[in-house]
Design goal:
- It is a single chain.
- This protein has 704 residues and is mainly beta.
- The chain contains four helices and 44 strands.
């Protein structure tokens, strides 16, 4: 211990310790002429003047009274905490003092007062400094209780934070992203004679338009036996009368009508020739209901037979609009469709072959490339935006490898997407070849009572919305091994998969999905070096007799990535679901926000923060974004003795380099410290991991 100079004070406070020494002669006689003197401090010591927050110092005061009267010791602290006073004699008092978490520089927080039997007192003060140490770590080990929010972040058994990719949809019947994601669609393969256009609509837009009810069923508001969605795809409703509906588009190209089943309909422009000549007939067709395929019956059919020309000129099979061979309803909103379109367009033409012809000349845009197949659509994809408009400036002129991928931008989470494929191919009703005419209206027993004959068919990822019947009725509709090459002898079928491949880890064989050339192509770096596992993927039945046309698979080896395979013939054709295959990659940001760190005393506030972190990323991920870090000091909102998380604290960005780095920042004083790490997302193989975080801070007293 070391002595400390004392200062005389005229006050006393704090706990009292009474010491009763022997009385002096002056006290005994009560001599009125005696001169009374205050006690004298003969010694004052403190173990240290410099303490860390919460540190403890030992204090002592020794005194004597000139008159020999009993001495009374009292201790007072304006900050920190005093222990219980002790004494070893009538002239000595000892004490401990625990430092507060912060102390104003130059403050003298502790005083001891000695009072004699005549009420005279002498005081001594003890100055202290509470030294802040930024190196003291206040961050507890990573555990679930240490974090308020973990979004696309996994807490590992090794107590690290691993950024994760967003989950992928698992069913074509309900494609919903769990959160907002940056989505890219990559063309993989097209093995078909048809020409396609690919896009999507939002389910809730169709609900808002009245096409779907709250139970998810298609609505027939005008009661004519045809769902309004199908009616408006082909503009079948008459323009007047009890079953009239608004024309989807501007001025109708064709207005002639026909009567079927007691109702009047408009003949569909997308199924009529250039002069809109009537194309309604009644004919004998095979029954497309499962179990009835050998039966024929008389049924109404509307739609013209295409000419033999390999390129059908406009206005054959057109409803005008932005793209005459695309239903106006599926076009993006545009003046050309009277702003009634609901679609977003991804690929306007999926041809990838060795010629420059589209099927029957019905492609939305010309095929301008004949050096396929090469895994790139045969038109300049980047020339068009998602609204089907020619860009003012093409970011990648010409047909290049970049044209295999379309960036959808940020796609809203929580909104169901329904993909559609418009397939241009000659319409046939031949159950032996797996094709049927689309069915517009069914009887109660499921038998079609009105068929549509058109080379422009629409297929939805939501199978119940499809017009064509599943004439086989087998369940599942298809079961395929996604990592197995397709058997082009066509002797492998879902019902007889002996020429297929074993599903990994099982004794089950399933037919292959894509051909060997496609599997080799996606293994290239430009596709992300994809090797599909030998996993099974099934196409379930629709539940209402309609033919499913989309296989969705989310391979276990490809987090946040999923694939769609389309069957492009009404009736299902060969049911290989590889007529068009696309890869969809979703990227979403990862965020981890810590809970507020242990709060300092209310009289103190954090004024500086020292932040140290270590993060890692897999090798070969150069150029990928690094995680960013921020810290805040107002992470809670407190009142009435309760505190709740502040959803919008003031975040201070921390300029940290990748790997291990440390930074110290001045902050607006506050006493609820938290931090967060954010990553923008990227390749699933290149997502970072945070292995440790340390948070130190300096405190400053809060002004009263």
């Amino acid at each position: 211990m070391h002595p400390n100079p004392s200062r005389l004070l005229a006050f006393m406070a704090g706990g009292l310790l009474f010491v009763i020494p022997s009385p002096s002669a002056a006290q005994a006689t009560g001599n009125p002429k005696a001169i009374r003197l205050p006690p004298q401090i003969t010694g004052a010591t403190q173990s240290t003047e410099i303490l860390p927050p919460g540190g403890v110092a030992a204090l002592s005061v020794q005194a004597m009274d000139p008159q020999g009267s009993p001495l009374q010791f009292s201790w007072a602290a304006s900050a920190g905490t005093l222990g219980l006073p002790m004494n070893t004699s009538g002239t000595l008092s000892t004490q401990t003092w625990t430092a507060p978490q912060c102390l104003e520089e130059g403050d003298v927080p502790v005083a001891a007062t000695v009072t004699n039997g005549y009420g005279l007192a002498t005081s001594v003060q003890f100055p202290f400094s509470v030294v802040q140490d930024l190196a003291v770590n206040h961050q507890p080990p990573f555990s679930p209780s240490a974090f308020e929010r973990l979004e696309n972040v996994a807490l590992t058994p090794q107590q690290t934070l691993r950024m994760t990719a967003p989950s992928a949809p698992t069913s074509a019947e309900r494609i919903v992203l769990a959160q907002d994601q940056h989505v890219r669609v990559t063309f993989i393969d097209k093995v078909a004679g048809a020409t396609h256009a690919l896009g999507y609509v939002y389910y809730d837009d169709l609900v808002a338009r009245g096409y779907v009810n709250t139970q998810g069923d298609l609505v027939d508001a005008n009661g004519n036996g045809i769902a309004d969605l199908h009616e408006d795809l082909y503009n079948l409703a008459p323009l007047s009368g009890p079953q009239a509906r608004q024309h989807i588009g501007t001025t109708p190209r064709c207005t002639n009508t026909f009567t079927s089943g007691g109702f009047t309909y408009r003949q569909p422009e997308l199924a009529l020739n250039a002069s809109c000549a009537s194309a309604f007939t009644r004919t004998q067709l095979s029954d497309a209901r499962p179990g009835h395929n050998l039966e024929t019956y008389a049924v109404d059919v509307v739609g013209a037979t295409p000419p033999t020309s390999s390129s059908i000129a406009l206005p054959w099979f057109s409803d005008q609009g932005l793209f005459p061979r695309l239903p106006n309803l599926l076009e993006p909103r545009n003046a050309a469709n009277n702003f009634m379109g609901l679609g977003t367009l991804i690929f306007l033409n999926t041809d990838d072959d060795g010629d420059t012809a589209t099927s029957m000349g019905l492609g939305l845009v010309p095929d301008t490339h004949s050096n396929g197949p090469d895994g790139i659509p045969d038109y300049d994809v980047s020339r068009y935006d998602l609204q089907g408009q020619v860009r003012p400036i093409n970011p990648d002129p010409g047909i290049t490898p970049n044209d295999r991928t379309v960036d959808l931008g940020l796609v809203q989470g929580g909104r169901e997407m329904v993909f559609f494929l418009v397939s241009a191919f000659e319409s046939r009703h031949n159950l032996d070849n797996g094709t049927v005419y689309p069915c517009l209206r069914k009887a109660a027993n499921g038998q079609c009572t009105l068929h549509l004959k058109t080379p422009l068919s629409v297929f939805f990822s939501k199978a119940k919305w499809n017009l064509d019947q599943d004439h086989l009725g087998q369940s599942p509709v298809a079961a395929l091994n996604i990592g197995c090459a397709q058997d082009y002898t066509y002797q492998c079928t879902t019902s007889n998969p002996t020429r297929g491949c074993y599903v990994d880890g099982t004794s089950q064989k399933l037919c292959g999905w894509m051909d060997e050339y496609s599997l080799e192509r996606i293994a290239l770096p430009q596709y992300g070096s994809i090797t599909l596992p030998r996993e099974g993927a099934t196409v379930p039945v629709s539940g209402n007799g309609s033919m499913p046309h989309v296989l969705l698979t989310a391979p276990s080896t490809m987090p946040s990535q999923w694939m769609l395979g389309f069957e492009d013939l009404p009736g299902g054709g060969d049911r290989d679901f590889n007529d068009l295959v696309i890869l969809i990659q979703g990227a979403a940001g990862s965020t981890a926000r810590s809970n507020a760190l242990p709060a300092p005393d209310a009289s103190c506030a954090v004024s500086r923060v020292r932040f140290t972190k270590t993060d890692t990323m897999a090798s070969g991920c150069g150029g990928q974004p690094a995680p960013t870090y921020e810290v805040a000091t107002n992470c809670q909102v407190c009142g009435a003795g309760l505190c709740a998380s502040n959803p919008t604290p003031t975040w201070y960005p921390l300029p940290l380099l990748p790997g291990t780095d440390t930074v110290t920042v001045d902050v607006t004083p506050g006493n609820q410290v938290c931090w967060k790490v954010t990553h923008l997302g990227g390749s699933p193989a290149c997502l970072p991991e945070v292995t440790q975080v340390q948070v130190g801070y300096e405190l400053t007293p809060v002004a009263p």
